[in-house]
Design brief:
Radius of gyration: 15 Å
Distance between the termini: 46 Å
Number of helices: 4
Shape: globular
Number of domains: 1
Order of helices and strands: HHHH
Number of strands: 0
């Protein structure tokens, strides 16, 4: 199950990044977006756009995570749910750290 979780997770992050970019006016194709590319775009964008991209990314990530992981794992009462939740917590911390840093730049 662990390899399956990693495989699906590797698809959810680019899909979330793709939707976030399109929602914020970037014209990209899904095959062009991976996690590294997304963070490079966030880094190069102005702070307002970067915050919007990250919030949108995390919203889509949560939607896909709930649809493909949390709900099915809860229905099956699978112990792998803890791994999924830990990965989500780690990503949330990373995104929040970047957002907080960008918001400090906006304030100053």
């Amino acid at each position: 199950m662990t390899s399956n979780i990693k495989e699906i997770s590797q698809k959810i992050i680019p899909l979330s990044a793709f939707n976030s970019l399109n929602e914020n006016g970037f014209k990209v194709f899904s095959h062009e977006v991976d996690e590294r590319t997304f963070y490079e775009i966030v880094e190069k964008a102005d702070p307002f756009t970067s915050v919007s991209l990250l919030r949108s990314f995390y919203m889509y990530y949560k939607i896909y995570l709930n649809k493909y992981f949390i709900k099915p794992l809860l229905l099956k009462k699978c112990p792998s749910i803890l791994e999924v939740l830990e990965n989500e917590k780690s990503l949330k911390t990373k995104v929040n750290r970047i957002i907080n840093s960008l918001e400090r730049k906006i304030i100053h």
